[in-house]
Design goal:
The protein has 643 residues and is of the alpha+beta class. The protein has 15 helices and 39 strands. Strands 14-13-10-11-12-15-22-20 form an 8-stranded antiparallel beta sheet, sandwiched between helices. An 8-stranded antiparallel β-barrel has the order 24-25-26-27-28-29-30-31. The chain has a 5-stranded parallel beta sheet with strand order 3-2-1-4-5. Strand 4, helix 4 and strand 5 form a beta-alpha-beta unit.
Length: 643
């Protein structure tokens, strides 16, 4: 018998997605939230909600389950999902943990132990070494990994012995911060590999099946971006062999529930090696659901309730092709640094063949406290090429105004010739990124649209205050100096945009008209384009085709650059992202060289080293370790010795 009430020990899009299945099954959903997350979407969509101090507070989570009367806890992914102590705590409290036994989490959560366990079961593994003695490793290139980690956090590629000490220091620091355990391992790095994983399911009756593979090779900094099922690289025979190996890996630790066995695959030979097992639901599980027709969350719940799997391996069929893209709060033009802000306007696609798993809501705040992933857009079609085309249209219909996202980059990546051809490897994104990052300069028609919005008649305006350029004879031109991310753009407009106006584009007067509103229609020279439009004080946001632009009115006499956006030419060193100062490596009065690390800023579990812009002396250092900082906040000032 299924549970009547389940606590979701998570937040964001995965909590919303779990609640969706609970609602369909008639199960009461209980959300948890921190004080800053009280109005989040997952709280709004649950039947009940309880406040907890932190999402990583295992005792508070177990206490919330008891207080709410929940019979089970679903951990989602991240946070406590792979925490064996939390699984034991739930058991002690008499609440079912919707996941594998604590022993299986322990065995697979420690990468060192996991490799030894599956190797003994006959599953091929990547050659490597474990603590202690990593400093003596000499087989390069090599990949450092946190033994207790996952999701690519703390992984560092090392190509020479000279790089090893600093890489180990950084990886240990990240591992302790992210997982509470600084133990590392090192493995031989496979050049140009494919990352292919197998979804497994196991019940308490001894049944273990796999649901085919997912291609997860499109990664940046070891973090998956676009995933698909099935893999364009894996034929039926290879799928059966890899699936059998994944099943044996699960059996070797007495696994129960949904899990994923990850393999590194040689793109030339097809040889595959076990990397790790994720003892939880994966972010990319929707692509498997769409090609199998199964609800993995429902199956997790049924297995946790003691039911046997309702099908065997011979019953698993893959139908069509599914592709998922992860929408992140990050800025590709700034080296993919995390962003943030309030969601001022939101549009998410609703069309056949498209699924959106999202934690976004208008008015919600995206900060640096949590992972930067905002939502997932997933497309299904009978074949791969159509699935990619469907995904592109769905991304074009997605707009998140108020927060800079990676949507234009995702569209460019999905259309890359190598991606379309299925010729993937884990280094492709890094190699192709320079050509995929969108130009920060707004297109001429977008600049014109922004100027027309600023020029439009304010509601209730005095006729004498309307900037229509009226005078005896021909109307006068009004110049709007619009400040965007790349600088200031003067745009000339005359007339009333709601009725009849002209805008100067490339020296030619182009007839223009707008229909104001959140769904802005702009007609230029007889051609109409539509934008999602929102004003936030003096800032205007426009969104179209998955891209977004921000504009503010730049008044004569204002500085030439945005406040806070000055370059480092004056010696002012600013924070590249909203986050927390993790390490201060310099001291006030210290002589430094150009490129010398001054500080490390951390946001969303990602570190960014801030360096000296030129040789000089650190004349100001107004921050300390542990201090939160906004984007473009002054971190230090380096004064040249001549000055």
């Amino acid at each position: 018998m299924l549970f009547d009430r389940v606590l979701i020990a998570n937040r964001g899009e995965i909590a919303v997605r779990i609640a969706r299945t609970l609602r369909r099954l008639g199960i009461t959903s209980v959300a948890v939230h921190t004080p800053s997350d009280a109005d989040a979407r997952h709280v709004r969509e649950a039947d009940l909600a309880l406040e907890v101090p932190r999402y990583l507070d295992a005792e508070a989570m177990a206490g919330a389950a008891l207080a709410s009367g929940a019979k089970a806890v679903h951990p989602g992914y991240g946070f406590l999902a792979e925490n064996a102590a939390f699984a034991r705590l739930c058991a002690e409290a008499g609440v079912v943990f919707v996941g594998p036994p604590a022993g299986a989490i322990d065995a697979m959560g420690d990468k060192i132990r996991a490799k030894a366990t599956v190797s003994a079961a006959g599953v091929p593994v990547v050659p490597g070494a474990a603590e202690p003695g990593l400093e003596g490793w000499r087989d390069f290139p090599a990949l450092i990994k946190p033994s207790a980690g996952g999701g690519g956090k703390g992984m560092v590629l090392v190509r020479s012995a000279a790089e090893l000490p600093d890489a180990l220091e950084s990886a240990r620091r990240t591992a302790r911060a992210a997982f509470g355990d600084g133990t590392l391992l090192i493995e031989r790095y496979v050049e140009n590999p494919r990352h292919i994983e197998i979804q497994v399911l196991a019940d308490t009756h001894g049944n273990v099946v796999h649901l085919g593979e997912r291609e997860c090779s499109l990664q940046r900094r070891h973090q998956k971006i676009i995933e698909e099922a099935p893999s364009p690289f894996v034929p039926a025979g290879m799928r059966a062999r890899m699936g059998a190996a994944a099943v044996e890996a699960a059996r070797s630790v007495g696994y129960v529930g949904a899990g994923t066995v990850e393999f590194i695959v040689d793109g030339a030979s097809g040889a595959y090696h076990f990397m790790e097992m994720n003892t939880r639901l994966q972010v990319e599980h929707p692509v498997t659901e769409l090609v199998t027709g199964l609800d993995l969350v429902e199956l997790q719940l049924r297995v946790a309730a003691g039911e046997a799997l309702p099908f065997g391996q011979e019953d698993v069929r893959l139908d069509g092709h599914a592709v998922e893209a992860r929408v992140y709060a990050e800025d590709p033009a700034r080296g993919f640094l995390p962003t943030g802000g309030r969601v001022l306007a939101l549009r998410e696609p609703a069309r056949d063949g498209v699924r959106v798993d999202s934690g976004l809501v208008e008015g919600g705040v995206v900060g640096s406290e949590f992972d930067p992933m905002l939502s997932k857009v997933i497309a299904w079609a009978p074949d791969r090429r159509t699935a990619l085309a469907t995904l592109d249209r769905a991304l074009a219909e997605t707009a998140v105004l108020g927060v800079v996202t990676n949507i234009p980059f995702l569209r460019a990546l999905a259309a890359h010739p190598s991606v379309v051809a299925g010729e993937l490897d884990t280094g492709l994104v890094e190699r192709a990124s320079p050509g995929l990052v969108p130009d920060e300069t707004p297109p001429a028609e977008v600049l014109a649209a922004a100027a027309l919005v600023f020029h439009a008649r304010p509601r209730g305006a005095d006729p004498w205050e309307v900037t229509d350029g009226w005078r005896i004879g021909e109307r006068a031109w009004t110049t709007w100096r619009l400040e965007s991310r790349d600088g200031v753009h003067p745009i000339q407009v005359r007339g009333l945009p709601e009725e009849s106006a002209d805008v100067l584009i490339d020296g030619a007067a182009v007839p223009a008209r707008i229909r104001p509103g959140a769904d802005l229609a702009v007609t230029l020279g007889g051609r109409t384009a539509r934008y999602l439009c929102v004003r936030d004080g003096d800032t205007l946001w426009l969104g179209r085709d998955g891209a977004s632009w921000t504009f503010t009115r730049h008044l004569i006499g204002d500085p030439g650059d945005r406040a806070g956006a000055a370059t480092a030419a004056d010696g002012v060193v600013r924070s590249p992202m909203p986050g927390t100062v993790l390490v201060v490596k310099a001291q006030q009065g210290e002589r430094v060289s150009q490129g010398q690390p001054l500080l490390i800023v951390e946001a969303m579990k990602m570190e960014h080293t801030v360096t000296a812009p030129h040789d000089g002396v650190v004349s100001e250092l107004p921050v300390r370790a542990g201090q939160p900082v906004d984007m473009d906040a002054v971190l230090a000032v380096v004064t040249s010795e001549e000055a």
